[in-house]
Amino acid sequence: MTTATPHRRLPLLPLFLTIPTLLAAAEEPPEPAALTPLAPAAFDRAAAAHLLSRAGFSGPPREIDQLYALGLEKAVESLLEPGGPLPAEAFEGDTLELAMTDRVDRRALRTLDREERQKLMRRMRQKNRKQFQALRGRWFRRMVVTPRPLEEKMTLFWHGHFATSQRGVGNSYHMYLQNRTLRAYALGNFKGLTHAISKDPAMLKYLNNQQNRRLHPNENFARELMELFTLGVGHYTEDDIKEAARAFTGWTFRGKEFFFRHRVHDYGEKKFLGHTGDFNGEDVIDIIFAQPAASRFIARKVFVYFVHEDPSAKIVEHLAEILRSHDFEIRPLLERLFMSAEFYSATARGTQIKSPVRLVAGTLRTLEMDPGSAPVFAFICGRMGQDILLPPSVKGWDGGRSWISTSTIFHRYNFARPILGLEARRGPGEGGPAGRNLGEGGKITDALPALPQWDTESGRELLLGADSAELDPADVVDRVVRRLLLVEVSAEARRQLIDFYTLARPETRLEELIHLVISSPEYQLG
Amino acid sequence: MQTPILKGPTVRRRDFLRLGALGVSVASTYPAFVGKTAAATGEANPLDDRVLVVLQLSGGNDGLSTVVPYSDPAYGRAREINRLREESVLNIDERVGLHPNLAELKEIYDEGRMAIVQGTSYPNPTRSHFESMDIWHAADRIGARRGSGWLGRAIDSTCGNRMNPLLSVCLGSEVPLALEGERSKPLTFQRPGSYQWRGSRQQRDAFLRLNSPSPESKTSGSIRQIDFLRQVAADANASSQDIRKATQGYRPVAPYPMGNRSRGNRLGAELRLVAAMIAARLPTRVFYVSLGGFDTHANQRGRHDNLMTILSKGLAAFLEDLKAQSLLDRVVVLAFSEFGRRVKENASRGTDHGVAGPMLLFGGGVRGGLHGAHPSLTDLVNGDLAMTSDFRQVYATVLDDWLGISSGEVLGKDWGWLPLFQTERLRAF
Fold first, then answer.
1. In whole angstroms, how far apart are CA B289 and each of B52, B164, B169, B173, B246?
2. What is the pTM of this model?
3. Is residue B122 predicted with pLDDT exceeding 70?
4. Which partner for B396 in A120, A281, A440, B407 could form a disulfide, CB atoms 3.0-4.6 Å apart?
5. Quick one: average pLDDT of B303-326?
6. Cβ atoms of residues B363 and B123 within 8 Å
7. Does residue B90 fall inside a structural domain?
8. Number of C-alpha atoms within 13 angstroms, CB side, residue A445?
9. Are residues A74 and A95 in the same domain?
10. In chain B, what residues touch A405 (CB-CB under 8 Å)?
11. Considering the domain boundaries, does residue B95 fall inside one?
């Protein structure tokens, strides 16, 4: 693991840009700017809300206030380098044990008779399933309660990038290990992460690299490494894939660890991306990262994840340069991004369709509710198209408008009802979170633990303040809207909400108002 | 008993007055489906009325127990425990017959409305459920990674930018890759009741206002995020209403076996919903339902027999119901599984993942009978039945001859043709 390179501060940047611009000014019209820094005075409260929404999973007003009070530079710093210990219960990974693929278990299995063996296998499969769901529940909760939201947001980003699904891995412990690796490198070094992932048991299993042998090469990992993880289509040839696959022969795992089966490794000379040598997997990765395409590929992806879907070539190049000059440390890139005017521009603000995780976790954060560690919210996100630890393919999730379809929109609108107490605890059949047949990885066979409870009394005070009894409907609507939405509602819509609140039954009107706001197109944007 | 053709949800006077305030009825938010042919000629084309119902048998259906080569001595040798006796098999000819519990479907076969394509698979088969199922859905190995399916692409190729959300409907909890296209996405739900916004009557006005489409929304080019969201919301509300209207109070003409839902038998209930939507003349062209439990590694006989009963009763009720309403000529059912099973039984009284298996087609316009060749039970490949038909030929024929959609574009090449339909090979454009 490489040590983090201390990142440079901003000051030198504007000079780099202005000089060539002045020289070019005489001949050509000004080119679209690359990233320019945001003036610190422009970092108002709305900007702080935007920052928290993108660099984290949004949050209640006091968290936005805190960020705003820090000012731009310190706010970004606090997100990038959060100190302090994590709450112990956030992620008790150490209590998980290895599931059925352990070699030791296999030998022990042979000493049992057939019926006992079947029973043991069944028990282990059940344990594996339960552990897996526990893993999903805990990770989801971690995203809500963590004091390091950017770290979790980046862990989620890497999970979608190096997409690996339990469906192809079948081992909850391996999935846990991968998640831990992604988090360890979340704000660290992308090249180091790629090296680590190339030796990760879950990834090796998922892309069949344990079957990659000298006499019988399997190109799956090599292909996805270049196409999806580092370079993108068009920056390598089919021959490069073949040669890279040879370099990774023998790369497999044993138990919880990477294992190099030298007997099936192809030690011969390879020609890869214009270089020749008896490369192994590590060499291949290093050669890949020496290509400019690598820095552009990931820089663009990070920009799209945090800012908007249409970065100019100049911006991508600018970000790629930052990556290259810091040898692929992610922090300097993110720092530049979160302090740039582009990030806070009208093109970026309130124009991103929230991913299911962002939507659900964000709602819980804004309403200051602890999800508990049951996997129910992971299922809910799965319904909406984002099953964490079960991405649909190695491509991960497309994001953006693909989150929205007639099939997902009602799930996005309805999910908060049981939490707000607007519905019976146990949803109807498969409709509510207590239903069965929800997503892959097995059904919930035990009775679901209680969903977090929205308490009307304290909820009212939380949202409306101590003087809630004296507020008129317009004030209530404005406060709720201000807390929940990052985009404006039309005057007509506001009018409708006020009319509703005025006529609604007092027992549930606040909760129904919240539900209405959640059931709006505006709420889907963040 | 024909329901009138619906151009949109029937709006009662009271609703209309409520919606009137919006200036625009919810119903007009999505374009009425206009097929490629009608768009070209300006006339309604009978092809636009045709429906495909895909029935996925999940887990790997044992073809040898479905279309049984009862008289082949190799069959008896391979299947000592799971053998279906000659007397009980419903004979089709001297070589093969149907599983004894498929009595209702045998009647349909005898009427000439059931086609069996034998020995279907694809080259270099995989025994992984997920991989193989993805290949059947994508109709392509590469496609399986790219996230689009054959029917999704088919629908994409016939529609412009603005797609009717009801074009493909899936009953179930998972969205099938087969129906996913670039633009086309299936409308997926388990019950009509779960495909709707849940809220009180008091909330409804505010909800509709918040989710009404933007007045100046464009239908092509890049539209703002908020306008896109409003469009989808409006489409969802409208289609939700259409589906509930179509399915609530539906009176089937033939009785359906409703089955035991908690034990996974929803086939009868789901096909009943499909019939309701077809009878209501919703613009849906593709329906997708599945029946699971076919992965019979152990103690196959009882489980497979049971599945055959469920399949036969449910499917026959559906076809009966459609026929009685003169709708059967508009509908074709295509049943498939991600692979067949091995010829020789295993040590757990079951069978393991195999390769070739039969595809079944039912309905109007189907040319009944046996198609393709039954794979040899002695000339095996790695212990498995060798493929005699590529499943993409069946897909191509369904696209070209039944749905009137050019298969070459959708499936990447010309896969050839099988005489599966009674109508002459149609090239609608």
1. 11, 20, 9, 10, 18
2. 0.83
3. yes
4. B407
5. 95
6. no
7. yes
8. 6
9. no
10. 185, 187, 232
11. yes
Q: How much helix, strand and coil, in percent to the nearest 5, is found in chain B? A: 40, 15, 50
- Same domain? For A70 and A122 the reply is no
Are residue A135 and residue A98 in the same domain, yes or no?
yes
Shortest Cα–Cα distance, A463 to chain B (Å): 20
Asked if residue A254 belongs to a domain, the reply is yes
Interface contact flag, B185 A496, Cβ < 8 Å:
no
**For chain B, what is the domain count?**
1
Judge if A183 and A280 occupy the same domain: yes
Report how many Cβ contacts below 8 Å link chain A to chain B: 121
DSSP letters, B341-353, are B-SS--TTSS--B
Interface list for B 132-151 with A (CB within 8 A) = 145-147
Find which of B164, B166, B168, B202 to mutate to test the A interface (most A CBs within 10 Å of its CB). B202
Read off the amino acid at residue A125. Answer: R
Does residue A346 form part of some domain?
Answer: no
Domain that includes residue A58, residue range: 34-80
Using a CB–CB cutoff of 8 Å, tell me whether A346 touches chain B: no
Best to test chain A binding among B163, B182, B232 (most A CBs inside 10 Å):
B232
Residue B221 has pLDDT above 70, yes or no: no
Residue B16 located in a structural domain: no
In a domain, A509, yes or no: yes
In a domain, residue A313? The reply is no
Q: Is some CB atom of chain B closer than 8 A to the CB atom of A438?
A: yes
Containing structural domain, residue B290: 49-190+238-411
Tell me what the mean pLDDT of segment B60-68 comes to: 97
- Whichever domain contains B308, its CATH number is 3.40.720
3-state class (DSSP) for residue B311: helix
Test B210 with A489 for CB contact under 8 angstroms: yes
ipTM of the complex: 0.86
| Helix, strand, or coil (residue B291) | strand
Nearest by CB to residue A516, choosing from B188, B196, B210, is: B210
Q: Quick check: A394 contacting B, CB < 8 Å? A: yes
Helix (H) or strand (E) holding A260: strand A257-260
Closest partner residue to A500 (CB to CB) among B130, B203, B235 is B203
Number of structural domains chain A divides into: 3
Average pLDDT, chain B: 84
